[in-house]
Amino acid sequence: MKSRPATFAAMLVVTSTALLAPTSASAEMFDHNGSLIIVNYDHNDIRYDTPSDRMGDLVRPGDPVFTGRIQRRGTIEGTAYVYKKGCSFIFYKTSGRYDPALPGYVMTGAAPVRAKKGCDVIGYSIKSPNARLLYVDIAEKEKREQNDYARSIYETESDPDWMKGFKDPMGKP
Fold first, then answer.
1. What pLDDT, in 10s, does the model give residues 84-107?
2. Which of the listed residues 3, 30, 69, 159 has the most CB atoms within 10 Å of its CB?
3. Residue 113 CB: number of other CB atoms within 10 A?
4. Distance CA 88, CA 103 (A)
């Protein structure tokens, strides 16, 4: 039989992980530079779900990516977070909108620039790699890829010569 602390710890891990996964229409999965993130429209925040290998040492599931105001497929404005190994996160103002061509949110804002050595912020720049953020809508991207594939098959089979090069399945010449 498990001890009470071990049982409680297991319940805590399962509960905290379950809180991150999107469980309703108010949350959706997006991709940010290879990390899976959850956009929660009810809470107006974006959090890491599965950090990329590159971010694995810097953030954990549940850490903030963005907080502010998020309209589903609309505008987004608020605070983005940037991480550096050995330093506390820094936040900065960003704003943008959902770009259906991406599909996803595109945000811009003067991002903090840290000293090469250490954690000090030495300024803010619109040329920083963090000054333009892309959050790719995974479900919409996959839906488009499936539609494009289906369209390509339909277009191929609509061609009257699409069977050229194949043997007749009935063996007829």
1. 999 999 999 999 999 999 999 999
2. 30
3. 19
4. 31
Q: How far apart are CA 22 and CA 73, in angstroms?
A: 17
Q: Give the three-state DSSP class for 129.
A: helix
Position 10 confidence tier, pLDDT thresholds 50, 70, 90: very low
H helices present in the chain, as ranges? 4-20, 138-158
For residue 22, whether the previous peptide bond is cis, meaning omega lies within 30 degrees of 0, is no
| C-alpha to C-alpha distance for 77 and 66, rounded to whole angstroms | 9
Helix (H, G, I), strand (E, B) or coil at 121: strand
* Residue whose entry in the numeric block shows the structure tokens 């108010």: 26
Q: What is the pTM of this model?
A: 0.72
What type of residue sits at position 116?
A: K
